[in-house]
Amino acid sequence: MTVNAKFTLDLNQGKRILECRPGMTLFAALRSQKTFLPTGCGARGLCGQCRVKLLAGEANPPTDLEHERLNASDLAAGYRLGCQLRPGGDLRLEVPAAVFAAREYPTTVEDIIPLTPEIRRFRFRLAPGDTIPHQAGQFLNLNVPSHSGVRGVTIRCFSFTTPSTTLDHLDIVVRLNPKGTATPYLFNLLKIGDPISIIAPFGEFYLRDQPVPAVWIAGGSGLSPFLGMLDDLVAGVLPNRPVTLFFGAAKPVDLYYVKELQDLARKHPWFKFIPALSGPEHDPAEVDHGLITEVVERQLSDLSQHEAYLCGGPGMLKACIDILVNKGVAREKIFFDRFG
Ligand SMILES: Cc1cc2nc3c(=O)[nH]c(=O)nc-3n(C[C@H](O)[C@H](O)[C@H](O)COP(=O)(O)OP(=O)(O)OC[C@H]3O[C@@H](n4cnc5c(N)ncnc54)[C@H](O)[C@@H]3O)c2cc1C
Ligand code: FES
Predict the structure, then answer these.
(1) How far apart are CA 285 and CA 277, in angstroms?
(2) What is the arrangement of strands in the sheet containing 51-56, beginning at the earlier edge strand?
(3) Ligand closest in space to the Cα of 220
(4) Is the CB of 38 under 6 A from ligand 2?
(5) Is the peptide bond before 314 cis (omega within 30 degrees of 0)?
(6) Does residue 242 share a domain with residue 148?
(7) Is the pTM of this model over 0.85?
(8) One domain for residues 329 and 222
(9) Strand, coil or helix: 263
């Protein structure tokens, strides 16, 4: 092999043939050729979303992070994480079909709306004539540029707040993590009129076209994907079905869009909205009290005919899934995006 040698990457039986320089990860090699594996962690080996199947060829052995994210039978079957796999020769790979649909879009920040002291809605306008086909609930990767001490692009996921019918702009709802990398940039440095690039669409978190009742559970900025799903149901993009949306927060000041969602529930009998506060402060306006798990436990009984959709932090998700399973929801009918 000469110093300038490149390996060939054959994706999905010749659907796309790309190259890789020795030493690069598969994730980086594909990305440099505008082919985007999904990532929930910014290629840090933490989310498992960049999973691919190695069909043939030489590569580094699975890393410790891969042993943590993939079980023994997956590893034996050839599954690897694209952000950990470093090709050592020509490879044949199988990647999810969605990889071929995701694209990079240049956008401009059009609006930034504070919703709570820690949560803001951002609107990104696509270039004229550009459109972004997606399903409500899916997510995008935001490319946060180098900034104050952070070198290189930081990739983070944010769920679409906009419905599937909105094609010329997209909104996201973001919670500030003051110790994080991307969200302090979004809150403190990004301004209206700034350019920012996104890659989309990704993810399996979208409403299945099933006329069965659904339980939706959102924590904090996890309300975001449900807003787009709801818009799609109201507009008749998908046939409506009984939906109960639980929205959990700690303090009254952490709640947002409550009045709008309560108004929607009054207008549409198929939609029930249950906001809940876990902290000691009480809000009189039709808000339930307790941890979201307690509220779900109290308000719902038999869920054996239901689908469930959840979005929020890992702790809330795990506790809620246990309750849903106990109440009869089949595991394969529980869909979620874990924000962290
Ligand atoms: C599918 C998906 C959809 C999502 N959608 C949304 C959404 O719609 N809205 C939303 O607000 N969020 C969403 N998230 C979460 C989002 O992608 C980010 O993880 C989140 O905003 C925090 O990003 P950050 O860069 O500010 O923090 P990060 O830099 O990722 O830091 C997160 C935490 O990790 C700690 N940390 C970071 N680096 C280190 C280190 N080296 N060692 C030790 N600790 C460290 C920090 O202290 C911090 O508390 C989604 C996540 C996923 C996977
Ligand atoms: S991108 Fe998250 S594990 Fe690879």
Answers:
(1) 11
(2) 16-20, 7-11, 91-94, 51-56, 79-81
(3) 1
(4) no
(5) no
(6) no
(7) yes
(8) yes
(9) helix
